[in-house]
Design a protein that fits this description.
mainly alpha; about 70% helix
């Protein structure tokens, strides 16, 4: 199959297949982790999700979770 006849989805699948074949699943994942650094500002987003809890609040939340296990 010639690359110029392939759809973008086919190229993507073939690329993943070749990476997995040659690097193994772990190697393929590590490759993608290196080339895709993500986007956005994780620190700012994390503060939106979690706020800025004190150590005491974190401790209480962990303790509560442990009690429910």
């Amino acid at each position: 199959m010639k690359v110029y006849n392939m759809s973008l989805e086919e190229i993507k699948r073939e690329g993943i297949r070749i990476l997995t074949k040659n690097l193994g699943i772990v190697g393929m994942i590590r490759f993608f982790q290196q080339i895709d650094k993500g986007w956005g500002d994780y620190t700012k987003e994390r503060e939106k999700w979690l706020g800025n809890p004190s150590l005491e609040e974190i401790y209480k939340e962990i303790k509560k979770l442990k009690e429910n296990i």
